Amino acid sequence: MSVDLEHYLILGSILFSIGLYLALAKRNLVGVLMGIELMFNAVNLTFVAFSRFVESPNPLDGHVFVVFVVTVAAAEAATALAIAMLLYRVRDTIEVDEINLLKW
Amino acid sequence: MEDTGTVVAFWVLAAITVGAALGVVAVRNLIHAVVFLILSFVGVAGLYITLSADFVAVTQILIYAGAVSVLILFAIVLTPRGDRGNQETFLRLPALLLALLVAFTLGYVAIDTSWAISDREGFEETASVIGEALLDKYVLPFEIASVMLLVAMMGAIILVRPEGPTEEAE
Questions:
Q1: Chain A residues with CB inside 8 Å of B1's CB?
Q2: What is the mean pLDDT of chain B?
């Protein structure tokens, strides 16, 4: 028995869909952000798995891409949590279904 | 990857990662959810090591298990009157269906496609090659990412700055 590319891809898709469910269904804004971070992790895992297994002249380019994804994810987390703080200051809540300013 | 240690490590780490991710969904306390999220990040870092990606694994521990989870914890403790629960909205069932659909589609594509598998061994070391690629082939994206991090940091500071004149200004 061995571990192949497909194992990592299926693991990545499971992680991605758990993150997708969190991002879509959680009531707390922080829960939504946790789902987004899980999705980033699933995609990074897929990148590194392809980098390890698939034929390519520069196999480590996948790792470079993961470094960029991590950079953007860190910037995203900082900005999103600042927005959450701001929202809490204005509305006194970070429940996404109570933030309905645009609903008439 | 045929050797028994790698196979056992993969299955154990996969179980930890997916189990912790399901824990994030299931627990009813937001702080506990963050702890499960950190466990999931560490599991993914272990999976990177089974893929002989040492630099990415260390980055994962530093950035995700260290920095991002602390940011998330800060967001929770700085909203003291917010709800600490981890409930779902009314979108629970559609989100569940969509997530299952995405998982099955991606899994089917992963199994059905015949990937161009190479038979090379794992990488000897990755950090020096990644460093050279970042400063040679990818130097422009690298600079843009640096500027974007600076802008994000300044933006976050300006957004959460208290309104009105500060005490020093008065």
A1: 2-4
A2: 88
